[in-house]
Design a protein that fits this description.
213 residues; mainly alpha; 0% strand
């Protein structure tokens, strides 16, 4: 796909949903956002938002999270799934923040991805939403699926998809790209039963052309 076509398609999707990009996860500071993003792996934002008020009331910062009882932490986040691994990562991450960053969330990609449980997707969410820094694109399951289906990228690896989109769209659109594709994925381009008849970009979509739905 060339840049001109990519921007044309993306502008149609943006116009379909309007508004301004906002983070779907609720938090009050960078540490809480970091914790929420770790919890969001293979879990809906709605579920994470239902769990975090009690979690952050009990452990509101890196210091308290680092010193938490692991069993108690697992109990608080159990509804998000994979709670044992998530609890370990959250606790280790909090301790790493205390030991290496004075309890504060770092503001660079390089430092963030060194934290337990943090990859490029999580780091991009933190940088964009906590610090207003856009150096990449958040590629979650919705973004991966739609990028492949529409034809923005033919790659399967999230890092490769991110690199492809960064070449197609201007930096000012990188944050918005993820936001609007997530909205479109939730509303229309479902993983199992996409509503192709309701899709605003079906005439451009590789998936629609191949499936003939």
């Amino acid at each position: 796909m060339n840049k001109s076509k990519a921007n044309e398609i993306f502008n149609i999707i943006k116009n379909e949903y309007g508004g301004k990009p906002v983070c779907f996860l609720k938090s009050e500071d960078p540490f809480q956002l970091l914790t929420a993003v770790i919890l969001s792996a293979q879990c809906t934002d709605k579920m994470v938002n239902s769990v975090t008020p009690a979690l952050f009331k009990r452990f509101p910062d890196a210091q308290s999270m680092c010193g938490c009882d692991l069993d108690e932490l697992m109990g608080l986040i159990r509804p998000t799934g994979f709670y044992k691994n998530k609890a370990q990562n959250i606790k280790k991450c909090a301790c790493a923040l205390i030991e290496k960053h004075g309890g504060k969330v770092p503001e660079t990609m390089e430092e963030l991805v060194e934290l337990p449980g943090v990859g490029r997707k999580t780091a991009n969410v933190i940088l964009q939403n906590a610090f207003g820094i856009t150096c990449g694109i958040v590629v979650d399951t919705h973004v991966k699926r739609l990028s492949n289906r529409i034809g923005f990228s033919k790659n399967e690896d999230p890092a490769d998809i991110e690199a492809d989109i960064m070449k197609l769209l201007p930096r000012k659109e990188w944050e918005a790209y993820s936001y609007y594709l997530i909205l479109h994925g939730r509303a229309v381009c479902d993983a199992r039963k996409p509503k192709c008849g309701d899709c605003c970009v079906k005439s451009y979509c590789d998936y629609f052309k191949e499936k003939g739905v």
